[in-house]
Amino acid sequence: MKGKIHSIDTFSTLDGPGIRTVIFMQGCALRCKYCHNPDTWAVESPDARDYEVKELMEVILKNRPYYEASGGGVTFSGGEPLLQHHFIKEIFKLCRQEKISTAYDSSLYISSQVVLDLIPFTDLVLADIKQINNEKSQLLTGAGNVLNLKNIRILNENKVRIWIRYVILPSWTDAYEDLEKTALFIRDLPQVERVDLLPYHSLGSHKWKLLDLEYQLHEVEPPSSNYLQELAQLFSSLSQRPVYLA
Fold it and tell me: What are phi and psi of 48, to 5 degrees?
């Protein structure tokens, strides 16, 4: 079995607790307007590399001392990592044998059976909520959010630890009614430990040009730090969860 991998970060502190090896998988079905990695969309890409399970485990095991010292582990990201869930499952099984913490960062716009299949081997899910409003989700990502929210509930019901990630994209995701509805949704999920508010940025817009894609957010300014602080306080109050700014 092989996995198509876009890139690997062997020393991340931003993708779960502790120091982590982050594997960015190739392929994504969404087309988020603010995506900073559109080069991960296509399943087949000259920039991706095929890894066998054994080969990737050798990369992962090299950093075991860092995991043990920091409470870290392995995180799969993307793209959409769950498009290659069979490969991830095999890696997670081996990580469990090696007592290495497992996590994935996903939009969860995926079959619920995939989520259920990975639950026995998953310690943490970094769950993206793109938009709580189904119609706005369609406009923002190209897909409605029914599966996204359903799968977060499934993870909660199965007592998987969850960190929520939410991008603040002015005029697209920061309306009060959307923030309120998202926060109240989270408040009812006891497995959600924290919320990370991520500010929109346009640092990946040059990739769109290189791929001959139309970037539609040139006029959107990134949110200010003061505005983000205000939203974080509001979100924390409504969700009753700690909120962090990335």
Answer: -90, 160
The whole-angstrom separation of Cα 34 and Cα 141 is 9
pTM for this predicted structure: 0.96
Report which secondary-structure segment, H or E, holds 181.
helix 176-187
The tokens 């020393």 sit on which residue?
11
Boundaries of every domain in the chain:
2-245
Look at the domain 2-245 and name its fold: TIM Barrel (3.20.20)
The DSSP string of 54-99 is HHHHHHHHTTHHHHHHHT-EEEEESS-GGGGHHHHHHHHHHHHHTT
Rounded CA-CA distance 176/195 in Å is 17
**pLDDT of 119-162, one tens digit each?**
999 999 999 999 999 999 999 999 999 999 999 999 999 999 99
207: which 2 tokens?
A: 């990739």
